[in-house]
Amino acid sequence: MNDGTLLKIRDLTVAFETEEGAFNAVDRVSFDLNKGEIVGLVGESGCGKSVTALSLLRLIPIPPGRIASGSALFKGEDLLRASVPRLREIRGRAISMIFQEPMAALSPLHRIGDQMVEALRFHENIPRKAAEEIALDWLRKVNIPGAEQRMTAYPFELSGGMQQRVMIAMALMMQPDLVIADEPTTALDVTVQAQIFELIREMRRRDTTILLITHDMGVVWEMCDRILVMYAGRLAEEGRPQAIFSNPLHPYTQGLLRSMPRLDIRRKRLPAIAGSVPSPGDYPAGCRFRDRCPEALDRCALELPEMAALTDDRRAACFRAREYLK
Amino acid sequence: MKNDSPILSVKDLKTWFPIRRGILARTVGYVRAVDGVSLDIDRGRTLGLVGESGCGKTTLGRTLIGLEPIRSGTVCFEGKDLAALDRAEVRRLRKRMQIIFQDPLSSLNPRMNVLDIVTEGLAAFQMLKKSRREHAEELMADVGLDKDAIHSYPHEFSGGQRQRISIARAVSLKPDFIVCDEPVSSLDVSVQAQVMNLLMDLKERYGLSYLFISHDLSVVSNISDQVAVMYLGKIMEFGDVEAVIGRPLHPYTRALVAAVPIPGIHRDRRRILHGETPSPADPPSGCPFHTRCPEVMPVCARIEPDMIRCSGRQVRCHLYSPDS
After folding, report:
1. Residue B238's pLDDT is what?
2. Which among A53, B25, B185, B223 could bridge B20 via Cys, Cβ 3.0 to 4.6 Å?
3. How distant is the alpha carbon of residue B198 from its chain centre?
């Protein structure tokens, strides 16, 4: 195994069986995360980006969910096959998560400091006093004003931005190798988002790897070293931000970038993508973007395009990707 | 047609909500959600209203169409002071002012089918000129929905389609003015553009005027003719979109604009604002933004700046002096 690779995901398929039928919310997804990298997993609601992340820590509800196939080698150890006690050791320690809704992730009944101390002492056999000091230190590191007083506050007493800082402090205090951040700034104002971005960049400077899940193309541009675009449970394309934004290879990415309102360009009409995201039970045969694709070929209705390498660091799942490559 | 007079004119508008405490529910203070706003909305144009959560933008929109009580100041619709009208006149005006909410699922009645939803207003105002079905089919066509779906219920539609239903309901009474309160914020990126295009088309077709409320500067800058930037219940900068977004003057507007990621462009990251918005129940002295302003001066904490005209827009900041 390449020593730069921290997590190697191969053919991850997550199936859901609901009353409306069975479908693959994540369908044969493969990618790597390298040490000290910020990788953006971007897509619209229902595309499977959160399910991908949650299934790595086996946090999806089983049933109705099921990890149907694949492997996720984290420093050589397959997370998808690890025992439950082993997973508990990994969660929050080697891999931690930051969620969109900090209020839903923090306990409403316990003081901030107590929650942090409990998490620290779960993973490490240290005295309470020492744990309190570590917790306080991290609250200061994420720029929480009056950190000492905040230790005894309940989550509801803090603003959304402050709650998200607490989540980040909790995610970082065990000094994990990987942080999975699921829409960490979606509920926040842009000025607070900019502050949180600074913290995430600071994490990377500590050599932490970050998987940043978002629907916001602007966010991935600003933050990421590498971007994975997901559509309808499958990866559509992968590349560095500069390459993806200047030369998108998948018609879905092309459409998204064209249709996005931009601050620097005013347009009377936005070139919108037709139709809407199909619900997981209703994926068309062949390429799942085919119904909305202005570039579809006959072949697209028959075969499902797989992710294929086009250059050293670019992959796309489109039969026509090579034509678009500049 | 009095085409040059603004459709809506707001003067020193205040909407305050009382904070009540104790068993006697005594008023112990006020949340100053809208605190002295003056602006005009021109006929056939879109005014974008931006600001962070809690700045009062939604309350301002709701106050303009009579959904919140006015504490002081005036709102004039085509020159008529809303507060001075009797009930019958208010009712007549109400159909000319509509609102589209952020979340169509919670603003559409789940027990009504689309036909009933989009024609309810027409029936209430005795404006049915043909069968409800014909009206509904026309409205569906107007907003780009399949007319065969008029017997379906809101949950059977996707988010983008549901927002089209809200829009059909809003335009059914042939209004002149629509408050669009974050109408595309809950939609997927690939659907957002469709709904924005629809709103722009309807504006052209029916000569509508919009107040377009959004926290998303990119959306606002594409859809608006003019932009007002709100902070703690006050307008900090107001003018044409090219001036306010393109060449912002107020330090708050500049920080907001700088915080928006633009794909393909590396932004100047030095303008990150620190701290958070103070509470509108206890606003700072002087300029409301002085506690976070990167260019704060001693005067800012003492004296609240007036709105002045400067470089083709209005701005409320001690850094600038009025155009002579």
Report:
1. 97
2. B25
3. 17
Query: What's the confidence (pLDDT) of residue B105?
Result: 83
Do residues B43 and B207 lie in contact, with contact meaning Cβ atoms separated by under 8 Å? yes
Query: What's the rounded mean pLDDT across residues B293-317?
Result: 95
Give me the domains of chain A, ranges plus CATH numbers.
5-231 (3.40.50.300), 234-326 (no CATH)
pLDDT of res. B199: 95
Both tokens of A265, joined, read 């360009």
Which of A264, A289, A293 to mutate to test binding with chain B, by most B CBs within 10 Å of its CB? A264
**Tens digits of residue pLDDT in A233-270:** 999 999 999 999 999 999 999 999 999 888 888 888 88
Interface membership of B196 toward A (CB under 8 Å)? yes
Q: What is the ipTM of this complex?
A: 0.81
E-only strand ranges, A113-218 = 178-182, 209-214
Angle, nearest 10°, between helix axes B132-142 and B159-171?
120
DSSP H or E run through B137: helix B132-142
Cα distance between residue B118 and residue A119, in whole Å: 52
Tell which residue, A58, A52, A96, A47, has the closest CA to residue A236: A47
Which amino acid, residue B182? E
Name, in order, each residue with C-beta under 8 angstroms of A282's C-beta and a sequence gap of 6 or more: none
Two tokens, residue B200: 């722009």
| Among the listed residues A73, A58, A77, the one whose alpha carbon sits nearest the alpha carbon of residue A9 | A73
Name every residue whose Cβ is closer than 8 Å to that of residue B210 and which is 6 or more positions away in sequence: B45, B46, B47, B177, B178, B179, B180, B199, B203, B223
Q: What is the mean pLDDT of residues A122-142?
A: 90
The Cα–Cα gap between B48 and B257 comes to 14
Select from B256, B262, B274 the Cβ nearest to the Cβ of A218. B262
Measured distance between the N- and C-terminal CA atoms of chain A, rounded to whole angstroms: 32
Helix (H, G, I), strand (E, B), or coil: what is residue B66? coil
Chain A residues at the B interface, defined by Cβ less than 8 Å, are 44-45, 145, 159, 161-162, 189-195, 198, 215-219, 221-222, 241, 245-246, 255-257, 259-264, 266-274, 276-277, 292
Domains of chain B are 8-96+173-315 (3.40.50.300)
- Asked whether the beta carbons of A310 and A249 are under 8 A apart, the reply is yes
CA B179 to chain centre: 5
Of the CA atoms within 13 Å of residue A188, those in its CB half-sphere come to 28
B279–A contact, CB cutoff 8 A: no
Nearest in space to B285 (alpha carbons), one of B248, B237, B232: B232
Each residue's pLDDT tens digit, A33-47: 999 999 999 988 888
| R_g of chain B computed on alpha carbons | 21
Produce one character per residue of A137-149: b if its CB has 16 or more CB atoms within 10 Å, e if not. ebbebbbbeebee
Distance set, CA A23 to CA A12, A68, A112 (Å): 14, 11, 39
DSSP string, B88-125: HHHHHHHTTEEEE-S-HHHHS-TTS-HHHHHHHHHHHT
Beta-bridge partner residues of A24: A15
Q: Which element (helix H / strand E) includes B17?
A: strand B8-21
Would the CB atoms of B217 and A264 count as touching at under 8 Å?
A: no
